[in-house]
């Protein structure tokens, strides 16, 4: 509902029925805005860029104006304000409880890593070396040797794994930590998506057998799918990474891949790696089995990061701002009194309180916006910008009719709900919104997957901003070749993953790129 | 119970009745230790240093052997293993819930801070400059300007506070973050107590009035007292820091001070600072009040760190290892089957399971130690080393008599408890242990506070490893003078705090050090 419409409502006593509302900031009208100066300062709060017109600018605007992010004077670093950090806390609570059920324990390993440990696994350090930040002095004193800041903690943890693991009874060893890591990227930094410091969890585990390691890789990947699909309402494709794209130094990498339709780019959602015995060899992590034989342990590592929040913003946000899935929204329902002239405002507040209590008793996260220096329409826009899933408006007629008006953020549908049913209806609507956001996002995503057999169709689909599912020979050289041939202004195409769910691959099918016999279907695309 | 005693028990079918047990590792006896090699590797697991004989070595040994800490190859950094990290999680859960009730929100600000921001408040940077770690390169590239790692986040946060706060409606602004900070200390590093990286929460808040800021300082300090006294069972003295000892750049600092009797040193437990308007002046954090007047905000910052765990270890630990207060213990009750020859081990396991389920249903944190490669006595020592508050032993006679034996870690008292009462009795005993640990620690601490009026008595008490409560003139020069006069091998004495609870100060009382009129009682001591 636009603020203009609402000013009208305030003056005429009629409720606007326009479905979409307006992004425009409220006109300043002194008579209805007690603290005019404050409003004036904030009239530029609404979105000014459209998602389909300039996606990059839209994204920067929405994360800042919704109150998720503040930019910072160290390039590539961002401030996570409570509005985004609370989403991280919801995901953390979920994931932390799940891994604890699996018997994984939290711990904390140092931020710093010695050069000696960091460079022990050659492939691994090759992957990370250019991005490693080095501390070389403290105060005015040069350190004797530079100390690296962890880009990830394999090399921090595994030297002590070698110490802790002796016999088969010390296995499995399953640790996790919630921490910050630093990768001094030189690509264009983007809040949540690519930042020089980010928050994550990293699990590091060691097993006696490959089977146990394989099993955990899958279980954790399924948790990552749940974070995306069940919490953030973002559809992902589960699959395995190609040799080129797998984790540096690992055996194989599984992934959940999301897709941003506006840019036509895939984005790695979270990864669960089986490291095999490569790190255990380098770090000499042996165990003695029950027959007295000495073997290398099998290891996994897995992580998801604050990136997940950025993907969610990109998928669901619209021209009015954020759209938060109810399961992760800090505020699920905002209650806004709609005062009319000559109506007792305290009576309105009582009604808001009553509804708020009903919703809170039902376990919903509720906020009343009773600020007296903004008109209702301005508040509607403000909470739409912040993405709150459900708005409840309460005006004098609602009170008279013992009802409230509910307005959904996802599709702006409105309905009047009798007072005695508010809690149940709000809970149901939140479930519907959660389901609808996922359904809509999946429909759009599914339309973005194009199945092709030939190079021509591949290029056409790619240029049409699609993910491309193509039969592939699975040769490293061919992936490098495809990268080289598609390198342009918008970046080369690469494999996103080989989906676990494979379409039929009839005998005789050939690779779209090499013409050699195809081994499997791979999902290709440009990517973040 | 010593393992020798237990070996005897295994062979003779009698239960040892010695009250103290032995710290000695078990003798290796092939016939009763199936996996002899593993035991051999771990026979040095027990404590070898006595707390009263060499406190420093005892502390290093206990934090490592209990599985709390692993040393690390970057000096001054330590690995927090699950056994200690889980204690941090308990405290975090408590404190986080409490501050959320107060309306304080979590957020995350960057690890890095620009030199410009860091050096804005002169007193502040003077206090921290020598300890600041600087990143000067990434990969092989020199950064254009060095970037500091946060030693604390005032200078990270306050530039944006100035941006976010405009009007009185933006206040109070109350944020908190859980994070790591780095202070490249050159003093002797000690796990938990003094490390170059540590974990903490830091709260940063801004108010319109000094009264609101003062009030919060007190409320938060009370939460810190609860952490120490109600969770860690460590008595603390609440008070205000002297001008010399207050937070660099702040207005005043309140503190909870603990005391380590073995070393005769006070230790700052946690601090809640009122920053006054000093930072807001430097960072230009103004707000417009409801009359349109422009004023500086009043600010607080407050923090507690992983140091709390170290203090707890120092206070309660004994010659057998850690002693964990039940409220923070990861495992509150360990159940150990005591098998006899010719007794069905599965029957024992069933009995352990049954007891375990009863305790878990009562909400207790329980672990069964059913390892078949260690004798019971070895397990007793192992869990004593790890500080588990309550041990339950279940042998064939216990099963026959429908009872279990409970053994307290704090005083080694044993009792036989009927099966139908195990849950209630265990819960009661845990409460008793929690209360008893605090009571004992407080008795010892109280004996360490010596009230004096003269310099001679002050020096005598100090050399007797006491905290000294003395009437003081509250002059900065006098504190500096006392420091200079007491500087010796064991470090100078300084004010720990001026306790909130002040004894009577009769008119005419003079300062113990200067002879000038005394203004208040101050608590002095050597300190960590």
Keywords:
homodimer, 528 residues, alpha+beta, Rossmann fold, 4 domains, five-stranded mixed barrel, 16 helices, disordered N terminus
Topology readout:
The structure is a homodimer of 528-residue chains.
Chain A: H1 3-12, H2 36-41, H3 55-65, E1 69-71, E2 78-80, H4 82-101, E3 105-106, E4 112-114, H5 115-118, H6 122-128, E5 133-138, E6 141-149, H7 154-164, E7 173-182, E8 197-207, H8 210-231, E9 237-240, E10 252-260, E11 265-276, H9 278-282, E12 286-288, E13 294-296, E14 298-305, H10 307-316, E15 333-337, H11 345-361, E16 366-368, H12 376-385, E17 390-394, H13 396-400, E18 403-408, E19 414-418, H14 422-447, E20 449-451, H15 455-463, E21 467-472, H16 476-486, E22 494-499, E23 520-527
Parallel strand pairs in A: 3-7, 11-23, 15-16, 15-17, 20-21
Antiparallel strand pairs in A: 1-2, 4-6, 5-6, 7-8, 8-14, 9-10, 9-22, 10-11, 11-14, 12-13, 17-18, 18-19, 21-23, 22-23
Helix pairs in contact in A: 1-12, 4-8, 11-14
Brief sketch in words of this structure:
Chains A, B: Its EC number is 6.1.1.15. Chain A has 528 residues and is α+β, with helices and mostly antiparallel strands.
